[in-house]
Amino acid sequence: MDSTPSPSPASPFDMVSRALGRYIPRREAAAAARPADPRGERAVRRSVESDPTPARHEQILGAVNLDRELRVTRCNLDAPVFAGVEAPIGSPLVDLLPPWDVPTVVRRLRQVLETGEPHVARVQRLRRADGSELVVSMSILAAAAPQEGLTVTLIAMARRLHLYAAETAIGTSLDIGETAQSLAESLLAWGDVAAIDLDFAVWTGEVVTGQPQGRIRLRRAALVPERAWPDGYVTPGDDLPGDASRLLAHAIQRDDAAQAIVIPDREAILRVLGSARLVRALVPGDRAAGVACIPLVLDGTPPVVLGVAEVWRRTERPFHDSELLDLQELVARTSHHVDLARQHQREHTQVLALQRRLLPRSSGDTIETASVYQPATPDSAGVGGDWVNSFPLPDGRTALVVGDVVGHGLGAAATMGQLSMEARALLSAGLAPDEVLEHLDETVSLLDDAESGLAAGYSALGSTCCIAVYDPVSHQVALSSAGHLPPVLVTPEGSAEPVAVSPHPGLGAEFALREPFDVHTFAAPPGSMLALYTDGLVEDPTLSIDDGIRRLADAAATVHPWDDLPQAARHLVSVLAPVRQRDDVTLLLARMIGYRKGDTATWRLPARGDAATRARTLVSARLKQWRTRADTRDHVLLVVSELVANAVRFADGPVTVRLIRAGHELLCEVGDTGNGRPRLGRKGLLDDGGRGLHVVHRLTTRWGVRWTDTGKVVWASVAR
Fold first, then answer.
1. DSSP letter string over 34-71?
2. Dihedral pair phi/psi, residue 707, rounded to 5°
3. Residue 486 gets which letter from DSSP?
4. The whole model's pTM is what?
5. What are the tens digits of pLDDT across the range 500-516?
């Protein structure tokens, strides 16, 4: 023990040291209590290693303090079981580790230094001075303030504790790669190299039932320790050669229960493999001479085999029966964790496919969009319910939608898909953003109704959504929000501010809390950029949510109107997304382009009997100016005449006529103050009522109605 004063009476190092002093005799006291032995400490070490008394092998605590350079500053390894484990003050901790474990452990130590999050119960081997090794459970904690650095606690483990600690560590992640890696690290206590090879269906999350028939395909999921492996050796992510898969299948395809298979020496390995190519692919070096293959089996009728675990040893360390029992017990205890990770992988893949399906596919002529969806880290509960979408509306406008459904997994994904499709259908039908949110609010409430049987144990109450509709003629954006974070608007001059959105509870709020959804309209001139996002992009434990939004606005202000938009979106996510994200990150950038001034024309006419005639005259002159074909001009004039006549007949107030030249079509819009919905009935062309809509229907590629604050707009598209 060094004499450095304690930095804090409550530091992890001191708490462990006090426990050691209370229950474990110090090395000096233990030596004084024993008879003098001229052989010195080597005899002590030998007696400790050879003593089979169970009490000597129970878990014993030790502690080491490290500075930021990972050098020992304090040390308490006085328990007899640590005899021969030397950690002098000022020495690097890596001197205690086998060389192949150094990269992994150093990475863990640096990670705790940077994040402050502890790393608990890593099964690790330490080197003694005589070359032997001690298996411990290593936990890494940030040192208590004001001390900087780390406290590393060590538990010299008994067999039962090793099994328990390994099972606990393996069950901490739902990522199949991390689960396999944890299992391989635990198995390393019984050998020099450990590998996990999984059935390809398990690796991809597919359904696995019963024992495999015929040839199986194995993929290497984990390999420890980390080192530079020679060319041709199978490493994580590689498929095993077909011959190797067939050989390992002997450990799986049995009439009785799957059992461990041991190949005891190198001669037997060469005889079984039968080719130099397989030896290069499977045997980890010249010193590894024996291997134990333990199937990963799920109990059932019939049992389901997930893959094979392999533990390799040197010649001088043959496998004993008790060790094989321990290996089989550990693998049997943890196989269900591998299957849980497989199920999570399957669900993750399904939800991610749905997420990708909802992402915008392409930009339009009047708006450019780019989106980024980044799932949460693998140790989260699964892909969440974040979604974005942008799509052109039939009348030439563009809808931008972003939402965040409560929860993760398939329940959130199903709700996300339903809300996304419902929003698209309602917006395409001409409803305003606030009206769409009212319908979504009712849908979420209905889904949470337990009596309806639709909820299935999942609640989407509190989900958020923001809808923006861009008009490329007026260069206006109409926006409504249900509890969602405000979008950020970047002007062509480069200033960026959050859009002033009235606060509103999320979807499905209690009736007493519900308020009408507001529509906020603002100008978005050509060159403007709108950023819609979910909270995973701006949430940071060290900042308020307002500061996070401000960071987004500052970063978005650096995007120039001529920058590549997809690249800008990826850059913003890389700058703003937290390193260890706990939620999905979603970003949608929309750059406004709009129609050129010469491609649109708008007239305001009084609601008089000659309105249709005046409209035909004005539209005809503009179509001639645009050099429109004669047949197209005749169709447009007839459509405009019928729509204006219908507006004058059934509405009060002025009539607005708008003509838009858009690509390969001409859009005709007629707005009035009426609230009646034009419907296409089954009456014939010669009937007086409804004849106009039949004419419009026959001459156009599509037509529809959208509602405004003052009435409605009937629009129709004519091919050019």
1. SPP-TTTHHHHHHHHHH---GGGGS-EEEEEEE-TTSB
2. -100, 145
3. P
4. 0.58
5. 888 888 888 765 466 78
